[in-house]
Design a protein that fits this description.
Length: about 1850
């Protein structure tokens, strides 16, 4: 119960903790508004939560929704308050500018916004507020709870209804709250200083300040009050206190008064307007003289108007001027007293006037062009004056950019090589216009836009200029790369030259244009030929082909003959990208083979007869790549003669035979050697005539030595010959010349035999000739067999006589004249068998002299004896077991006396020492002894005492081990020789092993240490000396290290245990540390001192350094920022320096202290500007400072009497502007005003003799305003008529004079040029020349008509005298066609000017007169040439002939026309334009019709299923070397037997010179005969007694399979075993004929099938099932139905399983340890077909095999049980197969599917006294095991008893405790 109460209390407390931690701004809301940028609309009363965060409110189609997050809409059916809870700080960034509200409410809605102390920030351009009303007559309440509203423009915005604002701070840059037609009530509202206006009221807005308690607020209005009216801005019932809450009312252009007023409803705050009456005067307080002020003279409200005192009025306007650049704003403007521009006089609104002047001339409008100007500001007759200069401007926008395809500006551009377009730009943007290569006029009327470019990585000096008109071509010529380009705008009347910033652009590699190919058909092995003009520079081309039907890529460089798509791949270059062209249709035709002929590998086409057929071979020498194209050649010949060989077929369809496809060759008679097979048979008796020539034939002839005549031979022998020498040769024949002779001898003598021993034991003896002729020889050869030796009696005897063998054991019996007998004596087996004993993996092959007992085993061992004897063979095996333990081996005598047991193996298991002896005899009686080394059987495990399993000890423990054959003692898996366990972490494991592998293990032995406690150490204070800890030793530990230190730190004192083996510190370590601390000391400080400093413009250390004995002194000037550097000052003033010591590792900090010091100002050196220039104004000199610090500025105020005119005066310096400097003691200087240099501009004017002459005028430049120095003009010079001039009177006679200007004013000095040329022109003489009409070549001459005033002389000239000439009387002569200007010149005559006039004479060309004898002509292609004759009456240009189409006809310079092709052509006869004649031409229309011919297709045929042969055609004779092209031969579709039309046509546009009539041919498909077909049979049939069907899988004709519907199978069902015949018969129209095919039902037992046989047999002592092996071979596809069909037709097949004895197999021997190999076998399965052997190595499934156990392997020991197994070695793997042994038949049966090396292996086991039945997987027999003496079972029992006893003892002890 107590636990439950505790749990309840804990739950309640947890709940309370959670509840009290809940934030106050978490509300239970009806709806949570999402924080995305979309607008949330609602009209339903309730509570809504608005999350904090940043809002990106969206742009909407209507302004009232833009930027709005919450939109409260009116719904008359839903009345109630909507509450919005702001749950966090809100920032709104709308995506559209405008006057928008974050929360907007509709009409008639009541809304409460709870800010919960959060901040709302509305940022953007020209945006409004947190919330706003739209036609709202409801109430909105803002509860800030200490929150803040921040806005760039307006904080809150209300239009109607009531707005309550409570407990909120408003920060708005322009207006805190805007209130129009609304009651605004404020409570606990704070307006931040950042607000421009706290509240702005609309025309009907009022403000309730009854509960407002903040600072006085500013109120502004956005409307005008009519003159004299009063306007209410508050509710009724306000007090004077409410009025005091208003600071002021702000309005830019009207003056309002704020006051209280009463009406029938109560007191309210009102605004009233004051109406002014204005007077305007100069403001004398402005020294510049540019200010006009106004004051109000209206008396009605003079106590309220701020502008009625002329001295204090702030209603002013000031004329402002400034020098500036062209088009850079106003150079003259008017400002009010606040420095703001005004268009009218402030407050009054009256207009003022600005008037502009240049060079004393009034301008009609404000000047804009560069120049010097003055301006006057006039206000009601009051004027002020100013000056300004307009200079050429710099372009204020300096930008260059590109445009993309959407016309958006880009700061870079990419285009491909030669792919630049002018629309990209670049565009130069200057001022408000744009400069562009196509349209530069936006910039300035005279501006020229050009460009410069360079590569990105090049130096700026490499910029290359380009004009706009060449930019397109230049940019298109640039190689790919990255470049900079910049625009250059030229200097104009208005602007200075501009170079823009650089703009990067990139030229990319161009997409390559696909190349064109010359032709679309070419021979196999060729590549496309590209049109050179279409190939791109530096590009490499490769080709890809695609099959036209599948569009799969052809993976060959040279595709086969056929139709393809071709794609040309361009590798690209420095100008072009890589790329592939669109696919093109191409056709590859057969390549004409070039044949190289050889006959038998040589180039000689003559070969000797050899009885073999010969024919030349042809090789294709123009193969492509690795193609192999074999040539089939017919014409093979054998006999002598001259023949022709023909190449008939090529193996590669990509090639075709050439026209010349034959070669001649010759077979000539051969020479041959003498016959080699001829022998002679001697006569039986000497002198007889029964000798013979053997091995002869009818092609031979013979003669006897001494005879001349050759004798023919009719048979294979020549008989009846006497003894003697004979010659035999081949006789001359059609194919051979007579051969050389073979010499043979017919001898006498009787046959002699040479005999060897019939029985050869231990040796082999043979002779070279067993039968010899009389006196012939025979060689005997002797060899010993393995295992045999020669004895002392060894001899080889011939006819009883011993003969001596040579080194090769041979003897030659010479001159044999009788039968000879050979015998051998003294060969015997005297070598004992090679014998081996094997125990485990150890082997011994001899008797050991010394026995070492070093082999240990703990289980039963078996010794196996094996032997081999290559002589007489092994006879018997014996063994003897010696347990005496003797280390000496038995002697041979002792071995003869022991009790040997017969057998090949012996097992031994008792604990003892053993030596095993073996004795083996062979059949010759030889004996071999072998012994093993000492073997120990030990089955008892070692004993361990002193420690026990699972026990814990303290300090070191010792244990002992007992065992006679001890091998290793391991502690924790490490071998030890000392048996001690020292303390350690964890447990010990002891493992003891003897040499036999018996093992004893003890686990979980724990040995612990004694624990030692650490001492404590006291700390010391830092002294600067080395300090160490005070600590003493005791009996358990010593101080290993106590170095301590000097610095404050924590130091380690190292302690170590005296006996670490048995003791540990409490933390388990041998060495430990205790901490010794040195603590911080308090430092001693020496204070800093002051120094005297004077300003030098650089930072200076303010004090001398402080010092301390510890830590770091740091300084500061603000007690905040600290540094180790001494503070510095620059300016002249007083400084406070703070300093402190910041402790370090060894010292503590020292608190802040301070010291003051100052930098004194520098005394200046004055530099006076003592020489001034007159400027029309009163002046004082200026002074500058010589010794200023670099970068400093210091203005000097100068006082004294100002002077205007030229003279010398005095002035004084009184003040400096820079506090870092002070005036020197001497501040007075004298100065001079010198005359001003001015220039004069003379306007010469002048006139013409006899007319009005205007004198020169002069204008002085740079004269100060108000000054008018007088100018005097003087004329000097002589007129053309000699009249002299010198004075101020203006000259009147024609001539050139000098006018000079001069002045008399001490304030000015006239400089530069003051003279000009004054000209009185001579009068016009009135020279007139009458215009000349055009003439033509060949017209007569004429005279020019001329008139003039005065007596000047006339002269004439022609500009082109080749056309016409004119004499001094004006007579014109025409020479040639052309144009010339005829000039008339009148000389000067005193007061009349000279003059000249020109008239143009045009002499036109006339036409050639050309006649031609031909009109239009019509010809036919192939017609002869003809001539056109033409004549002309002039020879200025030759008669020329031209053809409009030389493919139709050509014409030479003589008019000879040659017809080239059909078509229409115009022959033009012409003469070119010449000097005096126009060009002329005449045309002759020549029509050449096409020649009519016929193309006839040759008929063709094929056999069904064959490929179509090539279609051919014949045509009528063509013209010249013409060949028809584009002829298309196609046949009707269809592959069935029948006739099809071969259609002929031509490609469009082919053979235009011929009008071709096409005649189609016939293509015949003949039926295919199947008479010579064959079949592929399906299933193999075995006799069942039931009717069976032989399946036919395929019918093949000429190697091709027929479709099932093209044939039927008859007679393919049978019941009887043996041979049967089925029939295949053709079906349908496409095939004819039939054929028969044998099939077989395999007999059950009979081997005979038809004329052949199928046999299954075995060799060796083995049995198999005939049916089983046949079934497996059928399944393995080793026997097929087709193969059995061949058996039925005579083939013989034998299936033979052969078992024979084999050599030893090492792999089996090493893989079957524990077994004895009885016999090695080789088992093979062979399929013999007509005597040819095929080995079968593996089957798909196993078959059963039974073999007989050899007699020598049958167990004859009744005390032993023998288990037999079959081991198989196949492909490197050995398997022991499951084997059944039948004791009755001594046969082994096993299953196998592999045929290779096998072995019969076995194990012998002795019978036990007590039998235990055990199941062995590999045998069905029961095995017995003999129980061992000293079996481990007794030991195990004792150990179990001992463990039980220990358990009982432990249990009893625990109970006692």
């Amino acid at each position: 119960m107590k636990i439950k109460i505790k749990k309840i209390i804990a739950s309640v407390l947890t709940f309370m903790m959670i509840f009290t931690q809940m934030p106050v701004n978490v509300f239970a809301a009806d709806t949570n508004i999402s924080s995305d940028g979309s607008t949330y609309y609602t009209s339903t009363p309730g509570t809504y939560n608005l999350p904090g965060g940043t809002y990106y409110t969206k742009k909407y189609s209507t302004w009232e929704n833009a930027g709005t997050k919450v939109r409260v809409q009116y719904n008359s059916s839903k009345i109630g308050t909507i509450a919005l809870n702001i749950l966090g700080d809100v920032i709104n960034n709308p995506d559209k500018s405008g006057r928008f509200d974050f929360i907007r409410t509709d009409r008639n809605t009541d809304v409460t916004i709870n800010m919960n102390g959060h901040t709302f920030t509305y940022s953007g351009n020209d945006v409004y507020s947190l919330c706003g009303f739209v036609e709202n007559s409801g109430t909105m309440t803002i509860n800030g709870s200490g929150g803040t509203i921040v806005s760039d423009e307006v904080g809150l915005n209300s239009k109607e209804g009531v707005l309550n604002v409570n407990d909120v701070t408003i920060k708005a840059n322009r207006i805190g709250i805007y209130n129009e037609a609304t009651v605004l009530k404020l409570k606990n509202v704070k307006f931040d200083e950042s607000c421009g206006t706290d509240v702005q009221l609309g025309s009907n807005g009022t403000i309730d300040l009854s509960e407002y308690n903040g600072n006085a607020i500013t109120i502004d209005i956005d409307y005008n009050i009519n003159d004299g009216k009063k306007h209410r801005i508050s509710p009724r019932g306000v007090s004077r206190d409410d009025l005091n809450k208003i600071n002021f009312v702000r309005n830019s252009d009207k003056l309002y008064r704020v006051d209280l007023r009463y009406d029938e409803e109560g007191q309210y705050i009102y605004l009233a307007k004051h109406v002014h009456k204005w007077n305007y005067v100069l403001d004398n307080s402005d020294e510049s003289g540019k200010t006009i002020k106004g004051y109000c003279s209206e008396e009605e409200r003079n106590n309220e108007c701020d502008y009625q005192d002329p001295d204090t009025t702030t209603a002013k306007i000031v004329l402002k001027t400034q020098n500036g650049e062209y088009n850079r704003g106003s150079n003259a403007w008017v400002e009010n007293a606040n420095g703001k521009n005004t268009n009218s006089f402030p407050i009054s609104g009256d207009s003022y006037k600005l008037t502009y002047y240049q060079n004393g001339q009034q301008l009609s409008q404000r000047p804009t062009e560069p120049g010097d100007y003055s301006v006057t500001l006039t206000m009601n007759q009051v004027s002020v004056f100013g000056e300004f200069t307009i200079t050429k401007a710099e372009y204020y926008t300096n930008k260059i950019y590109f445009k993309d395809k959407n016309w958006k500006e880009q700061d870079n551009c990419e285009y491909t090589y030669q792919g630049y377009q002018s629309e990209f730009g670049p565009y130069v943007k200057v001022n408000d216009g744009y400069g562009h290569l196509m349209d530069p006029n936006y910039v300035d009327s005279n501006a020229v836009v050009s460009y410069e470019y360079k590569k990105c990585d090049d130096d700026d000096s490499t910029y290359k200029p380009i004009s706009s008109d060449k930019l397109l071509a230049e940019l298109n010529s640039l190689k790919p790369g990255t470049y900079f380009i910049r625009g250059v705008v030229s200097e104009t009347n208005h602007y200075l030259r501009l170079t823009t910033k650089s703009l990067k652009f990139t030229v990319l590699k161009a997409k390559p244009t696909p190349p064109r190919i010359v032709k679309y058909t070419w021979e196999y092995g060729e590549q496309p030929e590209l049109v050179p003009e279409s190939m791109l520079d530096n590009c490499q081309y490769s080709y890809k082909y695609y099959y036209r039907d599948t569009n799969v890529k052809v993976n060959k460089e040279y595709p086969d003959v056929g139709k393809y798509y071709l794609s040309i791949y361009n590798s690209g270059s420095d100008l072009y990208k890589s790329g592939s062209s669109p696919q093109k249709f191409i056709t590859i035709t057969q390549r004409t083979a070039t044949l190289s002929w050889k006959l038998d590998g040589t180039n000689t086409f003559k070969i000797p007869y050899d009885g073999k057929p010969h024919v030349p071979t042809a090789t294709v020498t123009n193969t492509v790549g690795d193609d192999k194209c074999n040539v089939t050649v017919s014409g093979e010949q054998t006999e002598v003669g001259t023949y022709t060989a023909t190449a008939t077929e090529l193996s590669d369809s990509n090639y075709k035979l050439p026209v010349q496809n034959t070669v001649t060759f010759e077979i000539v008679k051969a020479h041959r050697e003498a016959p080699t097979s001829v022998t002679a048979t001697g006569t039986t008796y000497k002198g007889g005539t029964d000798g013979k020539l053997n091995n002869v034939d009818s092609s031979m002839e013979y003669r006897k030595d001494g005879e001349n005549e050759w004798h023919s031979i009719s048979g294979d022998t020549v008989e009846g010959l006497s003894t003697g020498k004979y010659y035999v040769r081949y006789k001359d024949s059609k194919n051979y010349y007579a051969s050389s002779d073979k010499e043979v001898y017919v001898a006498n003598g009787q046959e002699i035999k040479v005999k060897v021993p019939a029985s050869q034991v231990g040796y082999t003896l043979s002779v070279s000739n067993t039968v010899v002729d009389y006196n012939e020889s025979s060689t005997l050869t002797f060899a010993l067999n393995k295992g045999y030796s020669k004895t002392e009696d060894f001899a080889v005897k011939v006819n009883g006589e011993t003969v001596q063998l040579d080194n090769n054991n041979r003897y030659k019996i010479k001159n044999i004249q009788k039968d000879t007998n050979i015998t051998v004596e003294g060969v015997a087996d005297i070598t004992a068998p090679d014998t081996e004993i094997k125990v485990s993996n150890k082997t011994w092959k001899s008797i050991l002299n010394t026995i070492t007992f070093g082999l240990f085993f703990k289980e039963t061992q078996k010794a196996e004896i094996t032997a081999t004897d290559e002589g007489s063979g092994v006879n018997k095996y014996y063994y003897y077991v010696d347990k005496s333990g003797s280390e000496k081996s038995l002697t041979e005598k002792q071995l003869q006396a022991v009790d040997w047991k017969e057998g090949t193996s012996v097992t031994f298991s008792e604990d003892s020492n053993y030596v095993i002896y073996a004795k083996v005899t062979d059949k010759a009686g030889n004996i071999k002894y072998v012994s093993t080394d000492g073997i120990v059987i030990d089955t008892i495990a070692p004993q361990v005492s002193g420690v026990e399993n699972n026990q814990t000890y303290t300090k070191t423990q010792t244990f002992t081990v007992t065992d006679n054959n001890l091998d290793t003692v391991k502690v924790d898996d490490k071998v030890v020789t000392s048996y001690t366990l020292v303390p350690k972490k964890g447990t010990y494991t002891i493992e003891v092993t003897d040499k036999s592998g018996n093992k004893t293990t003890l686990n979980n032995i724990t040995v612990n240490w004694g624990k030692v406690k650490k001492p404590t150490v006291e700390s010391k204070v830092y002294t600067g000396q080395t300090l160490t800890a005070n600590i003493s030793e005791n009996g358990l530990y010593t101080v290993k290290e106590n170095n301590g230190g000097i610095d404050v730190n924590e130091y380690d004192v190292q302690l170590t245990l005296k006996d670490p083996t048995n003791y540990r510190w409490e933390d388990g370590t041998v060495d430990t540390t205790v901490k010794f601390n040195i603590t911080q000391a308090t430092p001693v400080v020496t204070k800093p001192t002051t120094k005297t400093l004077t300003y030098n413009g650089s930072e200076q250390e303010l004090v001398n350094a402080a010092s301390t004995n510890g830590g770091t002194v740091k300084y500061s000037l603000d007690n905040k920022n600290w540094s180790t550097s001494i503070p510095t000052g620059k300016d002249a003033k007083e400084y406070t320096v703070y300093y402190k010591v910041e402790g370090n590792k060894n010292f503590k900090d020292v608190d802040v202290q301070e010291i003051t010091n100052k930098i004194n100002p520098r005394t200046i050196d004055l530099n006076w500007n003592k020489e001034l220039t007159y400027n029309g104004k009163e002046q004082l000199p200026t002074a500058t400072v010589n010794n200023l610090v670099d970068g400093d500025k210091c203005e000097i105020t100068v006082d004294g009497d100002k002077h205007k005119n030229v003279g010398t005066y005095e002035a004084k310096a009184t003040k400096v502007s820079n506090p870092n400097y002070k005036l020197p003691e001497n501040v007075t200087t004298s100065y001079t005003i010198k005359p001003k240099d001015i220039t004069v501009t003379i306007t010469p004017n002048g006139g013409t003799y006899g007319e009005k002459i205007t004198g020169a005028t002069a204008k002085l430049n740079d004269v100060e305003n108000g000054n008018h120095p007088e100018v005097t003009l003087t004329y000097t010079g002589t007129g053309y008529d000699g009249t002299k001039v010198n004075g101020t009177e203006v000259p009147s006679h024609a001539g050139k004079y000098t006018v000079t200007a001069s002045i008399d004013d001490k304030n000015y000095n006239l400089t530069d040029t003051n003279t000009a040329e004054f000209v009185v022109k001579g009068a016009d003489a009135g020279l007139k020349v009458k215009e000349v009409n055009d003439k033509k070549y060949g017209d007569q001459g004429f005279k020019l008509e001329v008139s003039h005033k005065g007596n000047g002389k006339l002269s004439y000239s022609s500009s082109n005298e080749d056309v016409a000439t004119v004499d001094d009387q004006g007579n014109v002569t025409i020479h040639n066609a052309g144009t010339t200007k005829l000039k008339v010149t009148l000389g000067v005559d005193h007061n009349y000017d000279s003059d000249s006039k020109e008239v143009t004479l045009t002499v036109n060309k006339i036409n050639h007169e050309l006649t031609v004898d031909q009109k239009d002509v019509e010809k036919t292609y192939g017609d002869e040439a003809f001539t056109i004759h033409a004549q002309s009456k002039d020879n200025e240009s030759a008669i020329e002939y031209a053809s409009s189409d030389e493919k139709v006809a050509t014409v030479d310079s003589e008019g000879n026309v040659v017809i080239k092709g059909a078509g229409k052509v115009i022959i033009t006869v012409s003469q070119k334009e010449s000097k005096n004649y126009k060009k002329i031409s005449k045309e002759i229309n020549l029509t050449v019709k096409a020649k009519k011919i016929t193309v006839t297709v040759n008929d063709a045929s094929k056999t069904y299923g064959d490929e179509d042969s090539e279609f051919t055609y014949v045509n009528d004779k063509l013209i010249g070397n013409d060949k028809l092209t584009g002829i298309i031969l196609t046949r009707e579709e269809g592959e069935d037997v029948g006739t099809y039309k071969i259609k002929v046509s031509q490609k469009e546009g082919s053979n235009p010179n011929y009008d071709i009539t096409f005649k189609d041919g016939t293509y015949t498909i003949n039926p295919l005969s199947i008479d010579k077909g064959t079949v592929v049979l399906g299933n193999v049939l075995k006799y069942t007694g039931e009717k069976q069907t032989q399946e036919v899988e395929q019918v093949l004709v000429n190697g091709k399979a027929l479709n099932k519907e093209d044939y039927e199978v008859l007679d393919n069902q049978a019941t009887k075993e043996g041979k049967h015949v089925l029939t295949i018969k053709a079906k349908g129209n496409n095939h004819t004929g039939s054929f028969e095919y044998a099939y077989v039902i395999l007999p059950k037992e009979n081997d005979k099938i038809g004329t052949g046989s199928f046999t299954v047999k075995t060799t060796g002592d083995v049995e198999i099932s005939r049916d089983e092996i046949i079934d497996i071979l059928i399944e393995n596809k080793e026997i097929t139905a087709n193969e059995l069909s061949e058996v039925a037709e005579g083939k013989k097949i034998e299936i033979v399983l052969e078992v024979k004895e084999a050599q030893a197999n090492e792999l089996i021997e090493t893989s079957t340890k524990g077994y004895k190999v009885g016999k090695y076998l080789n088992i093979t399965l062979n399929k013999i077909v007509n005597g040819t052997n095929e080995s079968i190595h593996e089957l798909s499934k196993v078959m059963k095999v039974t073999i007989k156990v050899p007699e020598e392997l049958i167990n004859k020991d009744s005390k032993t049980k023998r288990e037999y197994y079959i081991a198989r070695s196949h492909n490197g793997k050995v398997d022991i197969l499951e084997t059944n042994y039948d004791e009755k038949t001594n046969k082994l049966t096993f299953e196998t599917d592999k045929f290779s090396d096998y072995a019969i292996i076995y194990k012998d086991k002795k019978e036990l006294k007590t039998t235990v039945t055990a199941s062995i997987n590999k045998s069905n027999t029961k095995q017995t095991t003999k129980a061992k003496t000293g079996d481990n079972a007794n030991i195990i029992g004792l150990m179990m008893l001992l463990v039980s006893s220990m358990f009982v003892m432990v249990f009893v002890r625990k109970k006692e405790n």
